[in-house]
Amino acid sequence: MLLTLAVLFVCSCTLFMSGTGEAKGKIHRLMSIESHALEIDGRDAVRIQIGMNRRDLSYAIMANEQSELRIALEDVKLDKKLPSEYVPQGTLADKVTIMPEGKDDAILTIEAKDSFLHKDAFRIRTMPGDPHDKVKEYLVVDILAPAAHPSPAQGHSIVIDPGHGGSDSGAVGYSGLREKDVALAVSKRLKELLYEAGAAVIMTRTEDADVSHAGSSPSRELGARVDVSREHPEAEIFLSVHCNSFTNPDAHGMETYYYPKTDADEHLATLLNEELAEAGGLYNRGVKYARFYVLRQTNIPASLVELGFLSNPDEEALLADTNYQEKLAQALLRAIERYFDEEGEK
Question: Is-above-0.85 flag for pTM?
Answer without folding.
Answer: no
